[in-house]
Amino acid sequence: ARGGGGGGEAGHGGKRRIVAGLRDRSLWPIPGLILGVSAGLQVSVNARVPDLLAVPAWRRVVSYEPGLEQVDFGTLLSALDWLIIGGESGGRARRFDLTWAQRLSEACQRERVAYFFKQAGRRPFIGGAELPRLEDSHGGDLDELRRGIAALDSLDPWEPVLRREYPSLQLEAA
């Protein structure tokens, strides 16, 4: 191993080839390169998602975490490959309304965008009603979350909101 890099692609020569490849825009989108942004407020969606879409990428993801208000991706949603949803965790967590996730879940289904419900956060609500306190402070235990929802509402309309999908990670043949 030369240069302490361990040889192969990890050596200095390999690093130079990788950096050169990143600079050569004709090689973009680079297979396997997933780019993403976090956007939990409408102002963040409006500012960050167009920038994300301007960069060539193999897959694009937006993490709507922590979701702090209802957001509308509009026509930008159809250009995404994956939307990850989550409420805020921690002792000072702000409320996360599951109806926000419900609207995004429905939009992702319409646009055929993979939708991943990560967590409801520390303070999940349905409309104006707070769910019973969850043992999982992140709200990521879906069985526990289902029980909390069932204490307030029928679980049936919420089941699609709690799904966890992944985008296709199949590399296209060159």
Helix share of residues?
25-40%
Name the average pLDDT.
88
Give the strand order, joined by hyphens, for the main sheet: 1-2-3-5
Secondary structure tally: strands: 7
Features:
174 residues, alpha/beta, three-stranded mixed sheet, 4 helices, elongated, disordered N terminus
Protein model, in words:
The protein is an alpha/beta fold and 174 residues long. Helices cover 28% and strands 17% of the residues. It has four helices and seven strands; from the N terminus they run H-E-H-E-E-E-H-E-E-E-H. The chain has a four-stranded parallel sheet, covered by helices on one side. Strands 4-6-7 form a three-stranded mixed sheet. Strand 1, helix 2 and strand 2 (59-64) form a beta-alpha-beta unit.
Map the helices and strands:
Layout: H1 12-23, E1 34-38, H2 42-54, E2 59-64, E3 82-86, E4 96-97, H3 98-111, E5 114-119, E6 124-126, E7 129-130, H4 142-150
Parallel strand pairs: 1-2, 2-3, 3-5, 4-6
Antiparallel strand pairs: 6-7
Task: Sum this structure up briefly.
By secondary structure, the protein is α/β, with parallel strands linked by helices. It contains 4 helices and 7 strands, in the order H-E-H-E-E-E-H-E-E-E-H.
